[in-house]
Amino acid sequence: MFRWGSMIHLVKNMAVFKRSRQRELVIDEMTGLPRSKPFMIQLQMMIKQRISFHLILVRVEELKTITEHQVEAFHDELLKQISQRLLQWLPRSGSLCRLNIHDFLLYVPEENAGKVLRLQPEYLREMQTLLTDPYLIHESACHVNISTGMTTYKDEDISVEQVLSRTVTDLKLVKTQGINQIVQNREKQSKQIRERTLMEFYLGTAIKESQLTLHYQPQYDLQTGSLRGFEALLRWNHPEIGTVMPLDFIPLAEESQLIIPIGEWTLQEACRTLQQLAPSPSMLTIAVNISALQLMDELFVERVQKVLTKTGLSPNRLELELTESKLTSSFDMAERQLKKLQRLGVQLALDDFGIGYSSMDYLRKLPFNIIKIDKSFIDDIGQTHERDVTGFMIQFIKQLRYKIVAEGIESYDQLTFLKRVNCDFAQGYLFGRPMPKDQLPALIQSVNEAGNSVEKRKPSPP
Description:
single chain; alpha/beta; 8-stranded mixed beta barrel; 5-stranded mixed beta sheet; 18 helices; 20% strand
């Protein structure tokens, strides 16, 4: 016998299922926000009607890391709280959607544009502050970093995909400026990204095509006047774009992690050059800058040891320099790696000392042998107060039994002062500019013939 009640129940269930399925297609169940497809349809309608709006792309930078290390419920709750904060910030007539696992897309229409245009930096900073404040999830505090790209649509005959592309381009540009940053669309910014992408491609072929070279700046012992050694400085000369300054390509090398193979080449070339020009029993040293990325590589100490074995250079003649501002990412890892290098017999130098906030903490916890005082302190020696500060800092460091290198010496007044306060070593234009390796033999010979006297060397023009 046919049961009408069962049929009615089945039809109702099918209707409920259909409505549920339709909801899943337009609503992200986890956050309760619209999905991207209906959101894009809405934007396309606004473009068709020539309604101006701002499109904002928000990326939660640390969400992937959290997902990998926390349970799924933790991750889901974090997304919900981020969505709630975005809704709290969004103007009443605005809208947003969850674009993918870590991106949210928002628009603010013309009727709110006045507020955004007048208070744009503060208005968006308010959103960033809201999103980066701590989250409390399952009784645990959680922090995230975000990046924000924003573009404006105003009476243009383009597609919603083109508007979105502008916003994505802005977000990529944020990567060149650090986390928790905001970038708005400009043509020059798009051009900057294209140029940066091309530069990264060129840099990737620089080693293979022998475009990288090292120049060497001499260091002198201020108390004896003898040549102590050299600092190896990286140079890049591209056949099409010409000479590229280190300040322009070193940050790019670090961001793209090309600094690891470039750094390995630099280390090997510097050690090979010194060993060829001044083999044992010479005690001339070579100082090589290394990045935090290199230091954090688990195989870095092993690579240093292989280079020393291959080139034949004694470990105590190699000095590895690290900038204090680059050591904050993982203090414990840095400490372990530096102690391994110390056991290897390599000299360790803390570069640009005095310009960061953690200098004294580094001296207390990390096994450095040498401190390099930043050039800014040397430049100020001509002023009485600053000279006293520099002199006090040198005396303090020497009481801790570190050797000191002063950078950027350009005048005899600076030289006289540094000798008076018992600074150990110095380098700068007063003694010589960085030079290619084929000029080093003549320099070594001339210094030896002159009795290694610093005072007898005339300053080069600054």
